[in-house]
Amino acid sequence: MDCKKDVIPLMHHFLDGDISREDETKLRKHLEQCSDCQKHFHELKRTISWIKNAEPVMAPVDFTQQVMQKLPTEKKHVKYMRWFKMHPVITAAAIFFILMLSGAFSAWQQDSKLTVSKQDDLIIQGDTVIVPEGVTVDGDLVVKNGNLKIEGTVDGNVTLINGKLIQDQLNGEGLMASVGEVNGEFKKVDQVFEWIWFNLQNLFRGVFSFE
Amino acid sequence: MDVVIRDKIKQVKKGDQAAYEDVVLFFQNKIYQHCFRMLGNAHEAEDIAQEAFIRAYVNIHSYDENRKFSTWLYRIATNLSIDRMRKRKPDFHLDAEIAGTDGLDMYSQLATDEKLPEEEVQSMELQSYIQHEINELPAIYRTIIMLRYLEEFSLQEISEILDIPLGTVKTRIHRGREALRKKLRHV
Ligand SMILES: [Zn+2]
């Protein structure tokens, strides 16, 4: 066997895992008796382990970012759907809020009429609702788009939306003292956002209590 | 990792662009390195590697999921690199023989280029000296050697990536190893 012509190609076949058993034996036997080929084979194996230890080349830091920026834009709905899937809570909250907002706004605009939650024994004068002296309203009272004058008693919460509480005595400050009796919370709602907030609170109360 | 990539590719095929980011992240160093080995400079390597990822994304529907994604991606990067090399040197061909390397002494021809001065060799770290010698190999050999020993592709996969016959891959890898052995034997 000629070292250069026959044995060296066998070494390469061996290194590629591409050698017959017969050839492998031939190679082994030759290596045992030929120090030149032994040295050659050793050098090849050492070369391979050096190649394997070669320092890897790294892509620039912003490589992926650059690629992503250059990609053609994807279909819009896929983008939205993915976002929704990734943020289910925010999505639910957003949908809820949009519904609430649109609902509340239209309610705000439509409801420019004076409305009172209870009519019994109340007097309505123009845009003013009066709880007359000696009358007791049993339960919560809500007045929208009108003023309220309490001379009697309300056994519950009073909510005044987009209206004023009219006081008999014009001494300003002592609001509760000047009105008749309100045996509950008194709330005044003037702004759109307060109105929305009021609606939200009612909704949550509805959701979280099982009345 | 293969399973994760397979999954991401499926999402990309459905039109989910964000899933592609993970694919790029996973392969960026490999593809960049491959282009760098072929082209020999960082600027072109970045350019071509980016282009490869963009091409792969645009043509994702032509990727056959039964085959290895990495092979397909490397193939794109290789073709783009060859195109770029041809721009520099119109007669470049990956399958071309280097003049004078045929015949009996084909193993010895490659290693005859100029050697570094002795003191320069000593001052260099062994690691970077080896790197230098690898870089000195002709692109064809350098690419195959890297695909085989750094990326650990099989000879068959290399033949698919480079689109050259298996026999040619074997010849190239033998010659590349011999050339490097000669360059490094005195170390
Ligand atoms: Zn021998």
Task: Describe this structure as you would to a colleague.
With 211 residues, chain A is α/β, with parallel strands linked by helices. Chain A has helices spanning 3-15, 21-33, 35-52, 63-70, 76-86, 88-110, 175-178, 192-208, and strands at residues 115-116, 123-125, 128-131, 136-138, 141-144, 147-150, 153-155, 158-161, 181-182, 186-189. Chain A folds into two domains: 1-89, no CATH class; 115-195, no CATH class. Chain A is built from eight helices and ten strands. In chain A, a hairpin with a 2-residue loop joins β2 and β3. With 187 residues, chain B is an all-alpha fold. Chain B is built from ten helices and no strands. Chain B is elongated. Chain A binds chain B through residues 4-5, 8-9, 12, 15-16, 18, 40, 43-44, 46-48, 50-60, 63-64, 66-68, 70-75, 78-79, 82, and chain B through 14-18, 20-21, 24-25, 28-29, 31-33, 36-37, 45-46, 49-50, 53-54, 57-58, 104, 107, 127-128, 130-131, 134, 145-146, 149-150, 155, 170, 173-174, 177-178, 180-181, 184-185. The structure holds zinc ion. The site of zinc ion has 6 residues of chain A, from α1 and α3.
